[in-house]
Specification:
hydrolase, metal-binding
């Protein structure tokens, strides 16, 4: 089957690297001078003059102050863990930040990404690796796609191509149109029905299904490539891998690499864009955080996440975002046909495996010990493949202990509360050397780690 695709250029022009600069900040012993310039295609939005900090903390009071100050200054909180908070900001905002937080915080702060502008440029895909441009000549779909991060057009092309290549057990999933009118595509991998002359019983058990999603947050590109990696492996059989055959024998699977299609597309113009692209009550502040817009624990009092200019803006009401509304409707429809028992929501970064609830550590979690056991076992399987360590913990430890409502409206909580027992968030590579800007060389290793996770996960839940 021939697939005709239109190649769209990634960038209109290459932009030269600016001269290196130096700056003095309280967390540095001496001025930092960036390495030699790196010439690459770049997104129009520049992050020159921006840095990312890692701020360790030891008390709940410290982190609450840091979170409140960051929210007041509208800083970009990249990651929050029980040990540290990562924040991106302009160099010119450093003094104002340090004046408002305790000395115990800023004295221990260290640079995570010293030259954010340079790191953004280095993270952008090489146009020569564009999947769409290689389809006519490539003999290896896997290498062509996973050699670099790909546009939304290329991601959708891969989903379509997998179905064209494996029509016996795959089908294209389309949740509908995003706010800006893009198709939200994925692939369903289902065991072919056995031919039988017997009429199906109305009481026949529903087939089990696991749903895997990526890119609720636009800038988390590694989640897109990782979900696509899993979809490719299960659709093609991964070169006759017996464990893959077992996964598709026990369960049907749905892979949705890019839930936030509008935001993901826009992130090729603004690499660190997080939200979708839906208008808000503030004309110059677009976007809703999809992972704060689900109808579980949604902050109806608008105490914490009500600023439309915030990266964590929850929307004016639950399921206001077109993408979360479509996804929740799709989940509801799946349950009429399937026993949906698994949900894996891929994010970055931190290398953590998180189980419910995100909202609060005070909520009762069904079979918490079993979820913890699964997560720890899966992390060992991942480490066996790559040597990388993934920590397993409750999602509430990431944010929910800091400030009430900060983790409201999470997809993990809504799905788990609806009865999907084996629900996890996996935060992928890395632990902070690159943050969201992991290089393309991490795509395949991260995909292999997630495949190891999936094999362990499938075997574990198939026996329960």
């Amino acid at each position: 089957m021939q697939l005709s695709l239109l190649l769209l250029p990634l960038f209109s022009a290459a932009v030269a690297e600016p001269d290196p600069f130096s700056f003095q900040a309280p967390f540095l012993r001496k001025p930092f001078r960036p390495a030699a310039a790196h010439t690459a295609a770049t997104s129009p939005k520049s992050y020159d003059g921006h840095v990312a900090l890692r701020v360790p903390y030891t008390t709940s009071e410290e982190v609450a102050i840091l979170y409140n100050v960051s929210s007041h200054m509208n800083l970009d909180i990249w990651s929050k863990t029980p040990a540290y908070v990562d924040i991106a900001l302009r160099e010119t905002q450093l003094d104002a930040l340090y004046r408002q937080i305790p000395a115990s915080l800023y004295e221990n702060a260290r640079p995570l990404v010293r030259n954010l502008g340079q790191s953004v440029r280095r993270s952008m895909p090489d146009a020569s690796n564009d999947f769409l441009s290689t389809l006519a000549t490539t003999t290896d779909i896997h290498d062509a796609f996973f050699s670099d991060f790909q546009t939304i057009e290329a991601v959708n092309a891969l989903m379509t191509l997998l179905v064209a290549m494996q029509p016996s057990h795959t089908s294209l999933v389309n949740l509908g149109k995003s706010f800006e009118g893009r198709d939200i595509l994925g692939v369903k991998i289902a065991k072919p029905e056995q031919k039988s002359t017997k009429k199906k019983s109305k009481k026949q058990a529903k087939r089990k299904l696991v749903l895997v999603t990526g890119a609720q947050h636009a800038r988390e590109w590694i989640s897109v490539s990782s979900v696509a990696y899993l979809a490719h492996a299960l659709a093609t059989g991964n070169n006759g891998d017996a464990q893959i055959a077992e996964l598709t024998n026990h369960f049907d699977w749905v892979f949705l690499p890019t839930l936030n299609v509008d935001g993901y597309d826009y992130s090729f113009q603004d690499r660190l864009w997080r939200k979708n692209r839906q208008p808000t009550s503030v004309p110059f502040c677009k976007g809703i955080d999809l992972d704060r817009n689900w109808d579980f624990g949604w902050d109806e009092q608008q105490h914490v996440l009500s600023n439309p200019c915030s990266e964590n803006y929850q929307g004016a009401k639950a399921f206001e975002a077109q993408e979360t509304k479509l996804m929740s409707q799709y989940m509801t429809s799946l349950k009429k046909e399937y026993n949906v028992l698994g949900f894996l929501d891929l994010h970055s970064y931190a290398q953590t495996i998180l189980y419910p609830y995100a909202l609060s550590c005070k909520l009762n979690v069904r079979d918490e010990e079993t979820l913890l056991e699964l997560g720890i076992g899966a992390s060992r399987a991942m480490k066996h493949i790559s040597g990388e360590t993934y920590q397993t913990e409750s999602a509430c430890n990431q944010d929910g202990h800091i400030l009430a409502g900060v983790n409201s409206g999470a997809a993990l909580d809504w799905v788990y509360h609806s009865g999907v027992e084996w629900s996890f968030v996996i935060k992928l590579r890395d632990t902070g050397n690159y943050g969201f800007l992991v290089p393309k060389e991490e795509i395949v290793p991260n995909g292999e780690e997630m495949l190891a996770f999936l094999k362990y996960y499938g075997e574990f839940i198939s026996t329960r």
